[in-house]
Write a structure and sequence with these properties.
By secondary structure, the chain is an all-alpha fold. It is built from 14 helices and 4 strands.
Amino acid sequence: MTKIWPRPQVAHTGAKPAEASPFDREALRARVISKLPRNGVALLAFAVIVGALPLVLRSPYLLSTAIFIGIFTIVTLGLCLLMGYAGQVSLGHAAFWGIGAYTSAILTVKLGVSPWLAMAAGVVVTAGVAYLIAIPIFRLREHYLAMATLGLGIIATLAFGEFRELTGGPSGLPGVPRLAVGGFVFAGDVEYYYLVWAVVVVLIGLSLNIVNSRVGRALRAVHASEAAAESIGVDASRYKLQVLVLSAAYASLAGSLYVHYMQFVSPQAFDFGVSVRLVVMAAVGGLASVWGAPFGAAAVMLVTVLLREALPLVIPNASGEHITIVYGLVLILIMIFMPEGLTRGVIEGFRRNARS
């Protein structure tokens, strides 16, 4: 006869029950909710600062540089979501930027489509291309994935130059119209500055909501370990596909804004060097930081501008190669002393000074 042991009695000591695990769903939700007001205040402060800059930047050159920083910020935001949060390498992101730019240019110049409809079409086309590419490309891992995205960028650049009837070939496609709302045309740099940075503020808010949501936690889990993420029910393939499509849509929107500002498009604006520069912007600002995108884009752009202006004063016959060397040394120093990016490095520096 099987002996059934009595259930052990647990003494009631009056102690408080153990606190919830930090991975408890309610605890995570409370933590995310607590960040929302702080993010909202930071976003509002950022919008006020950005809105006041044209009052300070009287130089047309500086204002134009600020517009390019905003455009690059949009692309870098998508890269931060893809690389910093999902952990997927992309060395050909300029391809998506170029697809958006060329779609807007071709539809407006060749077919006379409204620029706003052309921008929307560019986002749809680019997202569709990213979706189709993501299905086979995400079967690769590590450096194989990086090489595949590199090949994508090279193919796109060659296509922009070879389909001459559509793209204008290496000579480019001129005559792209300015954006307009009714009778108001975004013709001046000040108007275009506010348009670009309004888009930046909206996309930063959207990105903050994504990374502080259930999707953001899933992306971080995929970044840490796909196997571990799938073991707890996270569909890694679906989340990787979605974040690539979203990142490509960001790049497409930036490409359309770029081409309607320049009123001209050529393949040289979307070559491999541009893809590397975009990755550098994301890395310098901080890959796993939404706020790192504008600061990374601004840092790289301003360093480039300063080198072009200051280096000839030190080296009289300085060429593009000299600028590239110094530019690389500056980036190496940043990555050595601030490996998590400028944003995190500056915050940690303030904290250390506060403690001391």
